[in-house]
């Protein structure tokens, strides 16, 4: 026992300093609270121990992390041990108290998680890795200083006194609970000069944190704050991630002290005011608990919980073992969920390349695991028998760690892959237990769903995974199939009581029946998320009654057949298959597909029938949900057929909707619903889809560009951002041509600035200089603008038709690489209500760019955010060699090249202009087709090419101009491709007829699968409070390359002159949070920029 001078004993073992000030206003408190308040107060705090170097600070912060972690487990164990219903022998007033105690103890446990996060912010701030490891409980002897012990205890006097002991304020000498032995020995404080960190003695948790606080102050005074706080600011967890207002970023001494103050004020109270702190709450609960025992000696609010493990600990510590095999399996499931929670938490604090959205996903996953897995499983376990070795006892969650050392996954893609894989294994384990242990089967249904939903959310927020054929994406993972069926059950429950006599309801019942039987990989998840979900919404929207009603609403015209089906279905999915059979017996077109097929050929037939029924039905209804379901059914019906039969079925679907106008409609917070518009990929190749298509616009689909229902799972919001670039059309008048530009609709593709940088300027004002280039080049650049932001006028009259290609382009949607959908050919664009979507001022209606990453500030139009958030399409699987066609960029790139060659370079060439003057005006397109076929475009058989007879000099000039056109068109510049291209061009100068088969040549394939991308620069060092702020040292590093590029149309953020000139505007944008466009700066960065502007803007 640790003593502090002359003490007085109270009957409960609480001893306080005799010099403590008396506390007034004690009415309404229990005996114990009054005793402590009357005698207690703040005595002189213990002397802080020595922290002389960074490693010692890291070591003690790791001790703090372990302590917070272990204490949190203790609190959860006690909370789970409490009874939850009157059936367990509690009177109504007793149940009210017990429920409140459980909520209070659980809330304290949640705050311990906050404290653990703050400790990790402190670790991260000084450059250390996260520390989630701890010894399994009970602790081994002497793990902590003398008197500090942790053990899993059920709720009661012993546990409450133990919790009070752990949370006691500094200066309070309080005995630990009876039966909690003081093990170990006091550890001497470190001496100055010791280099190896070690455990040091601390009397209380407050003593530990005050010593850490003093160590931080000491090291900052000794070496400077910039030396100490070397961790990246972006690694800090804040309120935006975990929704704790008290979760502050630690970047300096002041914020470190604020974090420590938060921990101590919540635990022991604000410098001794303990009544509302954890200590005071436990005092109050113990007072109430003892009063209840006095009122009713038989009062027993606790289940007969035994702290027992699934398996024996590695250390020689006596721990009871669970001898009931079923209970052991459920406890193992709890521990798996707990392990995944820690792994995700650790990944969050050790993240490297994660985007802000991915960090929020990790944070949300930890919260979901806590409330949807840990809490319900913890409560369930305390009702399960410990086994024959422990008669009459139940168990509590054991919080067993499989790794007592940190299990850090340092590589982002591998880490997310392993997390998703482990979540899938958890789903499988849950389903196995459900099948083997019927007594807990129903209680585990939401647990399996929670694991599956978290897995689905992780995969949805990591799009580059789609590059590799992961089992969970393809639906091969049994856990994915199970989770999909559970989601189907939820949608069935939504419509179970609604009139089943309508065509959408029949269609739903038929599709639902297919999910009850085996199907190829991917079919059941797609049916659940892209067919049943929208169909359930369609049924509900028809106004037949509230989802989940047990009978048709008053005034309904439900048929007897529909009423009977609804009654059969009841209020849940368990009887929905029977309802489906009831509908099927009537013989409607959709209902014919109810009876599940026994073979894949039968499945193909059923899916085709459903797709035909849905396509016909959408023609008779304006419900967008039917369009979404029809799109998925058309795609599924084709996908299960042999490749050779798919085109015929698509043609059949096209015939069914031949009278439908070409259109794009946006579903509310959902996909683009496309009708009768051709779709091509970034290479210009057709995307093999049906005539009704749902295109992803949330950025999370695993089936890009098709929608897979991810938008519903991740809560996609299609609202415009109020901080988007203003909708303003600017006019730039020149001598021959006037150019119009609206930055508010620009997708920032760079096609104009890359093509003629003397006209469209990134580093000068004004942005457009119409006299800076040839008029024909400006016309080509304006017409090539994919977003519709540019237009032009001659002699004061806008040339809208010329800008919009005189209406000659066929309707098409191009799925660009890692970017937006580029729409051309005057495709109508409508919103959910069918009305035209409002365009920006002067924007083209012939062509536009639609957001595909889900992050645009100007939805549905692209604002360039895909570049900022690192949106990526699937890449080639490892070992797969790209063709020259793919590497070049496909038809769009080759067409740009040949257009430059035959429309600009050759007409300007004094030697070749006359030779090609009489050439076919379609020469550029035919040359691009010929090159594409030679470079390996799939299924391409270009028409034979006739070439004029050229002299040696003309051939040499033609080849040189070809290579220049390739460079100006932005084709890849790597040596391997340029070598292969040069050899091809030399050959093509004399070749005619059929296109040859051209390969990579002697240099082979480039070593990288994709063009290298720049890595994110490290977080810049911010100047200290007394340090002069300079542009080169402090301001320029604040702006990343992407920031400089994105704002280059206004000013150059890397130019001292430009930033000095526009300092007020830049500061205004930074303060308003609309620059950079991928997220507002933290306050400390803005403060540095403001200091620079207020101190003379030094270079």
Automatic annotation (TrEMBL):
Alphabetical UniProt keywords: 2Fe-2S, Iron, Iron-sulfur, Metal-binding
Compositional bias (Polar residues): 16-28
Domain Iron-binding zinc finger CDGSH type: 684-717, 830-872
SMART domains associated with the record: ZnF_CDGSH
Gene Ontology CC annotations of this record: cytoplasm
Chain segments carrying region Disordered: 1-30, 543-570
Biased composition (Basic and acidic residues): 1-15
Keyword Iron annotated: yes
The keyword Cell membrane appears for this protein: no
Protein name (Swiss-Prot/TrEMBL): Iron-binding zinc finger CDGSH type domain-containing protein
Organism: Nocardia terrae
